[in-house]
Design brief:
single chain; 140 residues; mainly beta; Metal Binding Protein, Guanine Nucleotide Exchange Factor, Chain A; three-stranded antiparallel sheet; 11 strands; 42% strand
Length: 140
């Protein structure tokens, strides 16, 4: 992994990781699963698996949330951390799990038709899709 990395982890430190750049812009998912898992909507970046490295994984647990993906979280403190599709060679990392300022912006809101009725989608200039219409790739 090169010099340019982002680091992050869970609230208690039992899970720590680093991601080599580049990473995808942040995508906010408003689907029902993401809202249940996080308590709100999920804002996540994404990286190729070969650029992702676990530094501490003692608390890491995985839940197969659908036939196509699993979700990673800390079994010690409960922090929601990762969404990993079964194919595609990438992993999504919740932006809030990254340390400090990360220099990324929200590029899209997806599954907006499923959003909760208790909030408005931020007027942040990001594209909005009623389903998973945002096919934002990780830069090469």
């Amino acid at each position: 992994m090169g010099e340019e990395v982002l680091r992050g982890g869970c609230l208690c430190g039992a899970v720590r990781f680093e991601i080599g750049l580049p990473v995808r812009a942040v995508v906010a998912c408003h689907c029902g699963q993401c809202r249940k898992w996080s308590g709100h909507y999920v804002a996540a970046t994404s990286a190729y698996l070969e650029n992702f490295k676990l530094l501490a994984e003692g608390g890491l647990r995985w839940h197969q949330s659908s036939p196509v993906a699993k979700r990673g979280f800390c079994g010690v403190c409960g922090s929601s951390l990762f969404w990993r599709p079964e194919s595609g060679g990438r992993i999504s990392i919740l932006a809030g799990a990254l340390d400090g300022k990360i220099g990324l912006r929200t590029a899209a809101h997806i599954y907006t038709e499923s959003k909760g009725d208790y909030y408005a989608i931020p007027a942040d200039g990001a594209a909005q899709y009623p389903d998973c219409g945002a096919n934002l790739e990780v830069p090469k």
